[in-house]
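FORM 12-B: Structure-to-Sequence Request
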């Protein structure tokens, strides 16, 4: 099945990583792909396979974190009928399926020490033994593995075999996070936005407003490219006006009505309505105090008044930003800038 996701990027650090992967692809040696979640480790593994002499042979993928420990060895090496409860017939493992091609082991760091020991033997000698079998089978498999962990630290903690790491790290391709690829953010956003607009059957793609593009550049993207794709596609489908997309939401769970967590606390504070207007005598006292402070404190007092006005108006309009902007006589973008200036952007829906 053809993938709908492509390897896209033009930043120097990203192109350097791709170049390293491309050079290693031609060699029949193991490769480790390191990177945070959402950086495209599986896409790079596919690149390693398709640029290798094994391109016309199977590419078999196994997510080591997706299976319970009791089944990982059976998945990797296969089993004979009756080898354990439920094994009604013999089954080939992923090594046998990938014979002649490439085996991609995602989330390598989650393998148990027992599975690591058997994996080492398979990599070292090119032999696998099905569970319940007495004779090993010869296999010709190239290993590409991926993890989001620093495996040398795992070795120091005695939770990952040093000899297996030595065998697998012939080449290490470390993918940079999106926050280190600032120049790729608008390129990726335009690609995902244009594709989503086409999927929705809309006309000419107008892109994003400069303010939204700047917001995307300033965001840290902890989920990297996968998160960027979700944020962009969500923004495009929610935007129903003509012209460039002028609103974006990074946290789809942001809401003043979000349920409490298991500890009974909210992970994001919700702004509280401003206090009721003070009495006339209190207002007079405040004015006197302001006079005593002097003009040097003017900016901070204006900022405090503006923040209280925003908080109160948001509460009155049930934290609906468009309704709040209209009530205050602001455009949506002007309101967003004001909320960001007062650190209120993460606490509203």
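FORM 12-B RESPONSE
SEQUENCE OUT:
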């Amino acid at each position: 099945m053809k993938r709908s996701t492509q390897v896209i990027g033009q930043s120097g650090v990203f192109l350097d990583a791709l170049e390293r992967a491309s050079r290693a692809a031609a060699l029949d040696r193991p490769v480790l792909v390191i990177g945070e979640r959402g950086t495209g480790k599986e896409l790079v593994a596919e690149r390693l396979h398709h640029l290798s002499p094994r391109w016309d042979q199977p590419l078999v993928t196994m997510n080591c974190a997706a299976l319970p420990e009791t089944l990982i060895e059976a998945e990797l090496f296969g089993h004979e009928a009756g080898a354990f409860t439920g094994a009604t017939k013999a089954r080939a493992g992923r090594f046998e399926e990938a014979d002649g091609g490439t085996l991609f082991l995602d989330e390598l760091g989650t393998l148990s020490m027992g599975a690591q020991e058997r994996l080492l033997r398979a990599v070292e000698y090119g032999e696998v033994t099905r569970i319940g079998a007495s004779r090993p089978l010869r296999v010709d498999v190239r290993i590409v593995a991926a993890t989001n962990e620093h495996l040398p630290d795992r070795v120091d903690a005695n939770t990952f075999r040093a000899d297996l790491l030595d065998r697998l790290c012939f080449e290490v391709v470390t993918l940079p996070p999106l926050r280190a690829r600032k120049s790729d953010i608008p390129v990726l956003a335009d690609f995902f936005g244009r594709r989503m607009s086409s999927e929705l059957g809309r006309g000419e793609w107008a892109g994003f407003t400069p303010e939204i593009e700047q917001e995307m550049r300033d965001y840290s993207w902890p989920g990297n490219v996968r998160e960027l794709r979700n944020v962009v596609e969500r923004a495009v489908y929610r935007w129903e006006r003509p012209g460039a997309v002028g609103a974006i939401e990074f946290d789809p769970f942001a809401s003043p009505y979000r349920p409490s967590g298991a500890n009974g606390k909210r992970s994001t504070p919700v702004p509280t309505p401003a206090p009721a207007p003070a009495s006339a005598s209190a207002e007079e006292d405040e004015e006197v105090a302001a006079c005593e402070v002097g003009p040097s404190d003017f900016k901070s007092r204006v900022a405090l008044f503006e923040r209280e006005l925003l908080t109160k108006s948001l509460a009155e309009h049930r934290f609906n930003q468009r309704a709040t902007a209209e009530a205050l006589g602001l455009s949506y973008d002007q309101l967003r800038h004001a909320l960001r200036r007062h650190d209120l952007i993460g606490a509203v829906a």
